[in-house]
Design a protein that fits this description.
By secondary structure, this protein is of the alpha+beta class. The protein is built from 27 helices and 19 strands. Helices cover about 50% and strands about 10% of the residues. It holds the Pfam family Kinesin.
Length: about 800
């Protein structure tokens, strides 16, 4: 049957007068079995490891409020029952200094700890006398119990007897560990074991040991927490027969022990600023606690290896006195109970985390429980043997303590040859164990070294990686900065362009440079309130003066539908080439016939536009030539250049020409509007203007056609009038307003459809009146048209209102 090491956690309360040194509590109780520890920022764990909370499980957690009695009942009482039934037990308190180990084990006179209470219960149970606590274990009354106690101290890897007072020289004799052949376990050779008959005797022994410990501490200038104290209670259980005699047969005697250990504080010497003896102490404490930790780890590994069917490693029990002594307990000979003490109020996270980690490993160690043979009391016979001191008992039980210095050695029945072989075997066994241990230690050291090196390597790699990342980041940042700078320049350029455009727009908005457009039809005027504004007289004058700079609707159209850049065409190349040749000739002063030929070429160049001249810089060159003085200018180069320059300069006039002077068909001053152009709305305005222009052109076309028809009609009307001089007065009075009226084209703007209709009516009437005499082809063809529309009578108004006819007339 496997058993695990039992681990209890006891949290020390903060004493009433104390104030905590820990600002933020790092230990939280999750439930009865689990605590969580969050590394605070000040801890090493926070700086070096991950910062996630660490969780630790225990067999049970006792909070600050637990009473000593309750703590004892739940942790140690069950072990006492086992002990009195022949099982071994180990209780040890583990924790940093000041965490409450001694308080848990010894307690105070008013509130005793586990050890005094254990003694109390043992005597309550084995004697008929009950102490005040009255806590006891129910036992079979067929046994007699002998109780022996011993008290030892392990200090700097040496074992001392606390029940031996210091001698006159104040010297302490260190005891050695011996091998008990029968059980195969180590015991402290020469340790005084005192048989106690009552609880009082036991307390006296306990106090004696504590006093000696305090004296030794003073002698050695040590503090109590620097050593491990081991109090052992040995129970010898002997059956009694029906006649109440103790059965003397040693095979029916069971010996069990319970050790209660108050371990030294587990703090590390680097945190305690020790030197000299203190450092040695710390080193040795650390050694035994470290080995204890290693043993736990190895036992745990072996457990896992066993599960995988692998070979088990040697547990380094022999590396310290503490582990060597309690090897059997950790190997399953009885229960092992660990009391983990923590003081989260004035002990740092790192120290307690170390304790917790140890506990976490130890808690999971499972060992195979050794079953002690049960006594069959029915078959017991013989005489009683009574109680014997341990050494006598050992002899009675046949134990051979080979290397015990205090023992004389051999039994008379022992064979020296066999003893020699056994010794050799022991030596070999020891050597083998040593070798195994060295091997395990080496492996562990190598692993640690390797882990350290790996850590260093990983650290380096991390550094390299981080620096590479930084470099990369820096490069990217730089390239981004450059990119941003470039973009800024572009934005600035754009801003400049925008600015200049805005300035132009503003310039255009100024009353000095109005954007003058012909009055739009009613519909468009309504859509743009600004268009309904008319010019003030000053503005009119101004616009007159600057007529050449005014952007008219014609110019606008011309500008927006300007032909592509001349440099793209073949004419441009030729003209440019011509200019280059001309310039070369002028600069070399080759005033020969060549220059004349070139001038002729320029003069005869077809399709010269203002832009072509401007883009090829021909204008400038001609100006230059015009200003140049020629000797014997037989080809009149200078005057020809002047002429050409003027001629080319005039090419620009159609584009930026002032509005056509007023006249028939031109836009009069009243029909002009001044538009203010909002920034960024130029495009919109231009497209609006285009639409307006289109509609104006349509309108214009229609009007022209109407005028043409009217003129024709007027001619015909005149003719008809001449032919019908003899007609009734009524007719002539009807025609008189028309004949006196100005020409139709002059009235163009006043003519609307209504009037046009009247003209046609008169024309028709005159036509009808003269029809008998008329035979002209033109009129005939005209009446043919009417005939096609249907019958015509004098009063037939439907002539003009019949859809087909009316449409034909108005569609023109
Ligand atoms: N559960 C507790 N309730 C009340 N007081 C306690 C408790 N635990 C410890 N103390 C008090 O805390 C102080 C330190 O405790 P203790 O001496 O037991 O610590 P320790 O771990 O044994 O230290 P060291 O390793 O130095 O021996 C003592 O004054 C003790 O009375």
């Amino acid at each position: 049957m496997s058993i695990v090491i039992i681990a209890y956690l006891r949290i020390r309360p903060l004493a009433g007068h104390q104030t905590t040194a820990i600002e933020v509590p790092y230990l939280q109780i999750v439930d009865d079995l689990e605590v969580s520890m969050t590394p605070p920022e000040t801890s090493n764990a926070y700086r070096t490891r991950n910062r996630a909370p660490e969780r630790y499980k225990f067999t049970k957690i006792f909070t600050e409020s637990v009473a000593q009695q309750d703590f004892f009942n739940k942790t140690t009482l069950p072990l006492i029952s086992d002990l009195l039934h022949g099982e071994n037990a180990l209780v040890f308190a583990y924790g940093v200094t000041n965490s409450g180990k001694t308080y848990s084990i010894m307690g105070t006179p008013q509130d005793p700890g586990l050890l005094p209470r254990t003694l109390d219960v043992i005597f309550n149970s084995t004697r008929n006398y009950l102490s005040d606590s009255k806590t006891c274990v129910k036992l079979d009354d067929k046994f007699e119990y002998g109780i022996w106690v011993s008290f030892a101290e392990i200090y700097t890897e040496k074992i001392y007897d606390l029940l031996v007072p210091p001698d006159r020289q104040l010297k302490r004799r260190a005891l050695s560990l011996k091998y008990e052949f029968r059980s195969g376990h180590k015991y402290i050779s020469g340790l005084k074991e005192v048989k106690v008959q009552s609880i009082e005797e036991a307390y006296v022994i306990l106090r004696e040991g504590q006093r000696n410990r305090a004296v030794f501490s003073t002698i050695m200038n040590q503090t109590s927490s620097r050593s491990h104290s081991v109090f052992t209670i040995r129970i010898v259980r002997v059956p009694i027969d029906e006649d109440n005699y103790v059965i003397e047969d040693p095979s029916y005697v069971t010996v069990s022990k319970m050790s209660i250990v108050d371990l030294a504080g587990s703090e590390r010497h680097r945190n305690t600023f020790n030197s000299g003896q203190r450092l040695k102490e710390a080193g040795n404490i650390n050694k035994s606690l470290m080995v204890l930790g290693q043993c736990m780890e190895t036992l745990r590994f072996n457990q896992l290896k066993a599960a995988m069917g692998k070979r088990q490693a040697v547990v380094p029990f022999r590396h310290s006195k503490l582990t060597e002594l309690f090897k059997s307990s950790f190997e399953g000979d009885g229960k092992a109970v660990m009391v983990v003490n923590v003081n989260p109020f004035d002990t740092g996270f790192d120290e307690n985390s170390h304790v917790m980690k140890f506990a976490a490993v130890a808690k999971d160690v499972a060992t195979w429980r050794r079953i002690h043979p049960k006594l069959d009391l029915k078959s017991v016979s013989g005489s009683a043997i009574g109680y014997l001191p341990r050494d006598e008992l050992q002899i009675a039980l046949g134990d051979v303590d080979d290397d015990d210095e205090d023992d004389d050695g051999q039994d008379d029945d022992d064979d020296p040859f066999v003893d020699g072989l056994i010794t050799q075997l022991e030596d070999l066994r020891d050597k083998w164990l040593d070798a195994e241990t060295r091997c395990a230690t080496m492996e562990s050291t190598i692993r640690q070294q390797f882990a350290k090196e790996m850590q260093v390597e990983l650290g380096k790699m991390e550094e390299i990686y981080i620096s590479a990342l930084k470099r990369e980041l820096h490069d990217r940042q730089e390239s981004l900065t450059t990119e941003i700078a470039k973009l800024r320049v572009i934005v600035q350029d754009h801003d400049a362009t925008k600015q200049s455009l805005l300035e132009k727009v503003l310039e255009a908005r100024k009353p000095s440079t109005p954007l003058i457009l012909p009055q739009l039809p009613q519909q468009q005027q309504n859509s743009s309130p600004s268009q309904s504004q008319s010019q003030s007289p000053e503005q009119e004058q101004h616009s007159d003066r600057r007529a050449s700079n005014t952007l008219t609707i014609d110019n606008l159209t011309e500008l927006t539908s300007r032909t592509p850049h001349p440099s793209k065409g073949e004419a441009f190349d030729r003209f440019l080439d011509l200019r280059k040749r001309l310039r070369r000739c002028v600069f070399r002063e080759e005033y020969s016939q060549t220059l004349d030929v070139m001038m002729k070429e320029v003069e005869q160049f077809e399709g010269v536009s203002f832009e072509l001249v401007k883009e090829t810089n021909m204008g400038k060159l001609l100006k230059l030539v015009a200003q140049k003085e020629f000797k014997d200018d037989i080809y009149s180069i200078q005057s020809r250049a002047k002429q050409l320059f003027k001629q080319f300069a005039q090419l620009s006039i159609p584009i930026l020409a002032p509005p056509k002077k007023q006249g028939r068909g031109a836009f009069n001053r009243e029909s002009m509007v001044v538009l203010s152009v909002d920034a960024g709305k130029e495009e919109e305005l231009i497209s609006e203007m285009k639409v307006a222009l289109d509609s104006l052109q349509d309108e214009n076309q229609k009007l022209k056609t109407k005028i043409k028809y009217m003129q024709e009609g007027q001619k015909r009307l005149k003719k008809a009038f001449e032919k019908t001089r003899s007609s009734p007065r009524r007719v002539s009075s009807m025609f008189s307003p028309i004949l006196e009226a100005p020409t139709i084209s002059d009235q163009m703007s006043d003519i609307d459809d209504e009037k046009l209709l009247q003209y046609y009516m008169l024309e028709e009437e005159a036509d009808k009146a003269s029809r008998p005499q008329l035979a002209s082809d033109s009129l005939q063809s005209s009446t043919d048209d009417y005939d096609n529309c249907g019958a015509i009578s004098d009063n037939d108004e439907s002539l003009f209102y019949r859809p087909g006819c009316q449409k034909r007339r108005f569609d023109i």
